[in-house]
Amino acid sequence: MKKLFILITILLPLASCDVLNVDSQSAVPEEKAIKDKKGIEKGILGAYTSFQALGYYGRSYIIFSDLAADNLEQPVDGTAASYTQIDNNAVLPENAGIADIWAAGYEGINIANNIIAKVPSMSDMTDEEKNQALGELYFIRAFNHFSLVNWFGALPIKTDPTAGATGLDVARDPVAKVYDQIIADLTFAEQNLKAGGTKVRASKYAATALLARVYLYKGDYANAKTKATDVITNGGYDLLDYADVFTDESAESIFEIDFTELNRNRIAEYNFPKTLNGRREVAPTASVLAAYETGDERFAASIAFAGTLAYPIKYDDLSLGADNVIILRLAEMYLIRAEAEAELEGNVSAIQDDIDVIRTRAKLPGTSASSFADLLRVIEKERRVEFAFEGHRWFDLVRTGRAVDVLLSVNNVNQTLWPIPLSEILTNTNPGMSQNPGY
Amino acid sequence: MRKTLLFLIFSFLSWCSLAQQRTVHGKVTSADDGTGQPGVNVVVKGTPRGTVTDTDGQYTIEAAPNDILVFTFIGMMPQEITVGTREVIDVAMASDIRELSEVVVVGYGTAQKRLMTEAVGVVKADQIKDLPVPTVDGILQGQATGVQVSQNSGTPGGAMSVRIRGNTSLSGSGQPLYVIDGIPIITGDYAQIGYEGQGINALSDLNPNDIESLSVLKDAAASAVYGARASNGVVLITTKRGKTGKSSVNFNMYKGFQQVWNRLDMLNAAQWKDYRKDLTGVEPADTGADVDWQKEIFRTAPMSNYELSTTGGNDKTKFFISGNYFDQDGILIGTAFKRINGRINVDHKVTDRLNVGTSIGLTYSKSNRVEGDASLHGPLPNGISTPATISVYNPDGSYNQSGPYSNAVSIANEATNENFTYRTLGNVFADYRILPGLTVTSKWGVDFYNLREHAFEFNTVQGQKYNGLGFETYTNVLNIVSNNMLRYETSFGQHNLDAVVGYSFEKRETRSSYMRGQDYADENLQYINSAATKVDVTASAIDHGLRSYFSRINYNYNGRYMVSLSGRIDGSSNFGPNHKNGFFPAASVAWRMAEENFIKDNLSVVSELKVRASYGLLGNEDLTPFSYQAMYGTASYHGAPAIYPSQIPNPDLKWESTAQFDVGVDAGLFEDRVTLSFDYYNKQTKDLLQARPVQPSSGFGSAYQNVGELENKGIEISLGYNNRFGDLQWTSRLNVSANRNKVTKLYGGQPLDDAGRGGNRIMEGQPIGVFYDLKSLGVDPSTGDIVFADTNHDGEITTDDRTVVGNPNPKFIGGFTNTFNYKNFDLSVFLQWSYGNDVFNGSRLYLESLQRGDNQTTAVLRRWKNPGDITDIPRATSDPDAAANNVRVSSRFIEDGSYLRVKNVTLGYTLRSKFSDKIMLSSLRIYASAQNLFTFTNYGGLDPEVNYSGNDISVVGTDFFTFPQARAITFGLNLKF
Fold it and tell me: CA-to-CA distance for A356 and B618, rounded, in angstroms?
């Protein structure tokens, strides 16, 4: 008996030597994560997932532009306080909505940068494959930078992965530099990506189309016109009946973010009235309802009514939230080309033609405007209804310097930029991380 | 050979004294219930002659007339009786209520309280027996110094925050390590469906009635043997075991009801209309309804408990078997908790040298929960926030969903949220005496925790949105523990030595799966097989290992001078190769001055006086596993697998370590009728694991680092008094604790800002979780808007003007128990309080918002209306800037959360008559008990003892529509056969 006990006592520790030998079952150590082409592919998809965040393209980013402008407002029974601030254009640095956008954008940039750093050492990839992978990652990086710079102005450009917790105090780079980086990334993407393929991933013409928008926002109208024309002529996209545009991967769509029941968007949830089981945090304004001309087919495809309550329906998958969110579509290219041409004071009939492509599709008569100033107003109005609830309106008014004139609650140009989120200000000690004026 | 020799010696001794001796016999009974008391040592004083009472309490011994018989039994007052001429000497032994004579359970052993050098708080079964509290953490409240227990909410069976000597961590749960019968157990909230603070609690699976004692290990000397998990303190729970003697059967039950003890004063329909007219300029249409929504969501709820146990044994085998059924409905509609427990504890002596035993507890529990707090689907927030003009039902009988939030009654009635736990907590052990004084023990324990959550809703707003929404989750956690140790006890001369050296390992495997389904075929088919769309299907696994070596050496000289050394080396899988193992030593000394002659001679009233001091190092390994490594998390995009960098690596992550110094005095006066205990401690924690916020522009929100330092200093005083005045016995226990917590260092001095809804902040020089908000200067009489202090005098009110406006940590806490026994009556009154803590009353952000569609409290009736009005409530305005300004998080919503609770009053009557004998009863007691009978507080919310985010250390003292505690009145019965 005694011997048995001693034996057991000695054997017990041996039986348990491996209790400390434990592997993670939910995440892969970095050194094992990406070893080959397949790993890079998974990493690229990982970079797309940050767009799906609810605080980003999964909900707020799409809503905020219309809410900050005059297309959406928060009804009196809305409860999301961060939305109230956006609606009133009185945004505080601690606003959770803007912090989510900032964080999601930089998360996407960092994922892209991590994978970018790994691509060159992959031995099973050809140079062409590597450039293609890099092109897609550069597109993601550029789109994130672009998504942020429009709200926050000057911001840190990130092109290297975050490797540790030190050296992260970075200064804001001027807006012009941010644009240079975005254009460089997109130009590489345009040159190295293939045309076609699924629309939930970047393609050659997704890069060209985004470049057209970037040049337009930057005020480089000649390039905006060139890029928009390239997409219209060579992209192979078609204008559809307006009601058919908002289906997943429609022929008009150039680039969209994938959502499925596993990765849901909550846009419909925030738009739909409570009687239809939504939250109705936002609702169309009276002025956007009035902005549609009589007979405009886009109205019925954009807005529905529950009793007297209007609500947007471009994204209407309330129960699953699985409808893809369209980022770029062909109609925008026509209006970009028209606007660029008008700003360049070029060919009036070309401008009218492009506008009328959009108006005809909406079953509206052609425009009668002929002065450049009038045409620009027509384009502004056309963009408002064409892209209502798609996240364009605020940027259109801000980049044209029209926000203070058009929007009642914007009295000061300082309001056209959000404050840098408090979470960044508190953690980033670089003296170059300054707050925007007025905050 | 040795036996023969002993026999010869005893024979000789017996023979020597035979001349004057005769046989004395008798029965030893328990004074408490009159039953025979087995196992009592009966010794002739000054001789080695002695015997032990048999199972009926009978004994026989040879004694001379002038001999003195000494009767001793652990836990009972010893008695000395001169034999005289009597042949039959019956003795009734009273239980020893003197605290200092106790035997206390400590880590990997037991100790006599008199000889201890450590600071250990003890709660005994009789202190907690009548409390209608279903969980172990709940019964600790107010019972021991240095232990702060706050109920996070009134959710039946819900989680509580237990803090022993303050917070020593900024991450992890902050909860102590719980050890049941020597086996560390699974605690915490494993629920996968979020209920916004209404967490469940793996600890609630234990039946408090099975508990014999609880030891709270507070200082480093007591807890260092639990090394890497001890810095939050350790609670050792010992379950009841069989005793030698006649078997007894106990039946205990209570039954009662609970009610909400407090309600908010909300606007009625007329007041609401008036307010809305003021706000919008338009009087709302008359709905004809005037509903008190609190009446609709709160209810008088029954609770009951039944327990049957039997215990007994002989010198070979002892057993304790119990079964328990507990059933409680919550005071909030839709909530309930039910539990069935079984326990078998058996000890068996195989040979003189070998003892084996087992403790097995089985539990089934079911809780019905509702969403709470921040969710827009909680009956409590939704109900309180719904204006009185909104009727519960439409004229056609359907739920009225026209309120600002989905109908509270519809959620509670129509949504199913059930959690089931199935738990096995068991251990087997064997002790083998290798040599006299040297024992080897091996104990293997398993804790198998299964949690199933089932949720389904169809006829609610949320359910309709998804055409039926259901969840099914399974979590199983298996924890295997092996403790193996050698114990050596010896005495030579006045030197007494007791040493333990041991080896232990633990392996914990957590497996979970989660499913979400939508589009159900039928409202009566609740399971996912009827869901057309499976939205989210996932499963995951986490493993954890711990390998430890521990030792403790106790030495005392003549029971007067004590020294103790202990230590543990823990290796944890949570840490990387650079810091896999940690070493946690402790040392302590004590001096029992009462044994010295200068006390004995000069201060005879002093029956005990001990000073003690200890110092040691404790650890905390509570950290997300693999935080040290660069990891890629997994996701999916467009139907294909995706990976992404999920954390910032830090290969140098290591334990948090707490150095604790403790000095204490234990004193007893008048034969320990008065006892006093005082402790001062100073805990310095460094290498705090902090998920410190990083620059969001890095792509990450936070990174784990050992960066912070904090301290807890405090004093603890406990006073005990017990005495008998004729038939009245009075026992009184008072405990008061004061802890001062201060964060001394954070990464780069950067605060952890703006946690929770009340702006809790962790910053250097302040206690954890101070409220750091704008300072409200009240309502400007000229504008009706709130004015904030411009603390940096820059002419603008910005986030830079925030300052420390409140502290959620109490200045002191305490408990006061008085127990009176008079003849057959017993009465106990238990008070418990917290003083000097602030509460952020976050519900007022909505209930006094004067905007949006929420109902308001009657405080808004005194809102500013005209220039010159002096009031604390701003105007109702539709100006968005002013409205937003007026509800900014500020000191306006911070209130004094001090309270004094008459936590429990119990009055009992014990029947000890011929009648009870006739029906085979050895005792019968009936009692009535009131829990949370009165609460004295100035706090304006539902309950001052709330915390909407109980699992989060940094979010403290914030009330956000938190489920209040119930007042419970119960009637009970204790039967012993």
Answer: 76
Residue type, B312: G
Is A7 in a helix, a strand, or coil?
helix
Chain B positions touching A30 (Cβ under 8 A) are: 629-632, 645, 649
- Tokens standing for residue B863: 């809102």
- Please answer yes or no on whether A45 and B698 come within 8 Å at the CB atom: no
- Please name the helix (run of DSSP H) or strand (run of DSSP E) that holds residue B690, with its range, or none: strand B674-693
Q: Encode A185-215: b = buried (16+ Cβ within 10 Å), e = exposed.
A: bbbbbbebbeeeeebbbbbbbbbbbbbbbbb
CB-CB contact of A190 with A207 (8 Å): yes
State whether B518 and A261 contact (CB < 8 Å): yes
Q: How far does A246 lie from chain B, in Å, by closest CA? A: 18
Residue B5 has pLDDT above 70, yes or no: no
Radius of gyration of chain B (CA): 31
* pLDDT tens digit sequence for A306-349: 988 999 999 999 888 999 999 999 999 999 999 999 999 999 99
Give me the residue from A28, A262, A274 closest to B632, CB to CB: A28
Alpha carbons A407 and B280: distance in angstroms, whole number: 22
Burial of residue B937 (number of CB atoms within 10 Å: 0-12, 13-18, 19+): buried
- Rounded CA separation B411/A245 (Å): 38
- Cα B100 versus chain centre, distance: 24
Task: Report CA torsion sign: A225, A231, A232, A234.
Answer: positive
Of B118, B305, B353, the closest CA to residue B208 belongs to B305
Q: Which stretches of chain A drop beneath a pLDDT of 70?
A: 1-17
Instruction: List residues bridging with B42 in a β-sheet.
Output: B51, B71
Report d(CA A231, CA A228) in Å as an integer: 5
**What are the tokens at B359?**
């403790």
- Which A positions 13-72 lie with beta carbon below 8 A of chain B? 13, 16, 18-31, 33-34, 39, 41-43, 45-50, 52
- B91-100, pLDDT tens digit by residue? 888 776 555 4
Structure tokens at B471: 């969840």
Strand partners, B714: B681, B739
Who among B535, B572, B697 is closest to A262 (CB)? B535
Q: Which residue has the tokens 């425009």?
A: A367
A308 to chain B, any CB pair closer than 8 A? The answer is: no
CB distance B967 to B260 below 8 Å: yes
Q: What pTM, to 2 d.p., does this model score?
A: 0.81
Nearest to B972 by CA among B267, B274, B132: B132
To the nearest 10 degrees (0 to 180), the angle between helices A221-234 and A330-343 is 150
Question: Which residues, in sequence order, are bridge partners of residue A90?
Answer: none
Mutation choice for A interface testing from B637, B854, B960 by most A CBs within 10 A: B637
> Which structure tokens are listed for A242?
């307006």
Name residue B739's beta-bridge partners. B714
Classified as helix, coil or strand, B157 is: coil
